[in-house]
Amino acid sequence: MIAVLPVMVFLANASELTGLEIMEKVLNKTSWKDMQGNVKLVLTNSRGEQRVREIRMFNRKRTENENDMR
Known about the structure:
Strand content: 35-45%
């Protein structure tokens, strides 16, 4: 099962929230049990050279407050 976390925009408090707080709010609002996804990370140095990393993530909720991420 492939699930995509919904993107939530917090316009009123965006400057007051940290990235971790936004991520926790998104995770707490969803009802998923497990998910997987592919992430493409492009690293660009000061000379404009790019390196690409592809990451496959898996996450499973054991309980409401505990999950495994690999």
